[in-house]
Design goal:
5 strands; alpha/beta
Length: 151
């Protein structure tokens, strides 16, 4: 598991966290999944600040992020991530209950890689998470950490 890139999940809803982790277990996703519960914690993790100063080096394969989070919401966190030269290459998938067109448009203007509305139906929710995990953690190719800087 050490050589697999981790998945960074930014989600404050404990029930959604459990459903997401259960869906990943069902497909035997071997990637480590690290959970942050608000936008500030997410940015601290990515920037090696606060409690994450000495965390394991490396960038996640993907960030799965809710929009409605405490402290710093997902759209503001997305704006910060995509404006940082070291972080902007990390794929970000918005995973939200918001189907508002304005959130969708703003997310894409800020550089989101995918926008997924959380299905209300349990089986569809689990299926969506499985497909997200398979694509972003297994099929999608990402540059190695040493090659992430703009050339």
């Amino acid at each position: 598991m050490d050589n697999l890139p981790r998945i960074l999940l930014a989600e404050d809803n404990p029930e959604d966290i459990e459903l997401i982790l259960a869906a990943f277990r069902e497909i035997n996703l071997a990637n480590e999944i690290f959970i942050t519960r608000n936008g500030e914690e997410l940015l601290d993790y990515l920037c090696y600040r606060g409690q994450f100063t000495n965390r394991q080096k490396g960038y996640p394969a993907v960030i799965l992020m809710d929009i409605k989070m405490p402290k710093i919401d997902g759209l503001e966190a997305l704006k910060i991530i995509k404006s940082d030269p070291d972080l902007k290459i990390i794929p970000v998938v918005i995973l939200t209950s918001s189907s508002m067109e304005s959130d969708l448009i703003r997310s894409y203007h800020l550089g989101v890689n995918a926008y997924v509305v959380k299905p209300v139906n349990f089986d569809r929710f689990v299926l969506a998470i499985k497909e997200i995990g398979l694509f972003w953690a297994i099929l999608n190719q990402i540059p190695s950490d040493q090659n992430r800087k703009k050339s």
